[in-house]
């Protein structure tokens, strides 16, 4: 009979220890709560790409007067040869390409074609996951194009730079829970605009 009470007493003591250890305010409960918060932080960090790296990736192979190796006035065949993103649309007036990052951000590029069948405007839409990512890409874009073309003009949610052959516009197109930026590259000269 003594072993029964001894075992029951040990079980009761063990149960009481576990119960008191899990009470709010205990060190174990606080540590467990801290651990669960720590696990959530990496998920938030994985939500967005590094926006500076994303900008570099979007504008890779860009030189003076070109975007991703394509210039205003280039033939569609050059676009098809150089563009590395997946083509999603081809029509008489534009070629459309898309790319999705590991974080499910989407980059859509449209090469608009003139009546003569050459590139006359390049439009890049970047769909992001958060307002923070949009702000970071905005700042990265502002620094990138200012370093490249000099000071731009800021017109509430639209930034503009004038390069020798084209105008560059960057616009925050965030609406509600849809976050993102639009980049537009259009010819600067009136003669080039007349061919559009």
Task: Give your account of this protein's structure.
This protein is α+β, with helices and mostly antiparallel strands. It folds into 2 domains: 2-45; 51-194, TATA-Binding Protein. It has helices at 2-21, 27-45, 51-58, 76-82, 131-149, 190-194; strands at 66-67, 70-71, 86-90, 94-100, 106-113, 119-128, 153-154, 158-162, 166-172, 179-187. It has an 8-stranded antiparallel sheet with strand order 3-4-5-6-10-9-8-7. A two-stranded antiparallel sheet has the order 1-2. A hairpin with a 5-residue loop joins strand 4 and strand 5. Helix 3 crosses helix 5 (131-149). The protein is globular, with a radius of gyration of 28 Å. Residues 26-44 and 190-196 have low confidence and may be disordered. Keywords: Signal. This is Lipoprotein. Residues 1-21 form the signal peptide.
Annotation keywords:
single chain; 196 residues; alpha+beta; TATA-Binding Protein; eight-stranded antiparallel β-sheet; two-stranded antiparallel ribbon; 6 helices; 29% strand; Lipoprotein; signal
Question: How would you summarize what this structure contains?
Answer:
The chain is an alpha+beta fold. The protein has helices spanning 2-21, 27-45, 51-58, 76-82, 131-149, 190-194, and strands spanning 66-67, 70-71, 86-90, 94-100, 106-113, 119-128, 153-154, 158-162, 166-172, 179-187. It has 2 domains: 2-45; 51-194, TATA-Binding Protein.
Give the secondary structure arrangement, pairings included.
Blueprint: H1 2-21, H2 27-45, H3 51-58, E1 66-67, E2 70-71, H4 76-82, E3 86-90, E4 94-100, E5 106-113, E6 119-128, H5 131-149, E7 153-154, E8 158-162, E9 166-172, E10 179-187, H6 190-194
Antiparallel strand pairs: 1-2, 3-4, 4-5, 5-6, 6-10, 7-8, 8-9, 9-10
């Amino acid at each position: 009979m003594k072993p029964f009470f001894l075992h029951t007493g040990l079980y009761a003591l063990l149960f009481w220890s576990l119960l008191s250890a899990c009470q709010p305010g205990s060190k174990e409960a606080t540590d467990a709560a801290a651990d669960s918060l720590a696990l959530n932080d990496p998920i938030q960090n994985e939500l967005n790409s590094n926006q500076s790296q994303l900008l570099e990736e979007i504008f890779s192979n860009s030189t003076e007067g070109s975007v991703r190796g394509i210039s205003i006035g280039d033939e569609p065949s050059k676009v098809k040869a150089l563009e590395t993103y997946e083509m999603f649309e081809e029509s008489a007036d534009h070629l459309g390409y898309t790319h999705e990052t590991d974080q499910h951000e989407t980059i859509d590029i449209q090469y608009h074609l003139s009546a003569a069948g050459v590139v006359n405007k390049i439009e890049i839409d970047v769909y992001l996951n958060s307002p923070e990512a949009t702000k970071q890409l905005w700042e990265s874009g502002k620094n990138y194009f200012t370093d490249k073309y000099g000071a731009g003009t800021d017109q509430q949610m639209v930034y503009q730079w004038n390069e020798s052959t084209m105008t560059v516009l960057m616009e925050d197109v965030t609406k509600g829970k849809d976050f993102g930026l639009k980049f537009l590259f259009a010819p600067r000269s009136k003669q080039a605009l007349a061919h559009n």
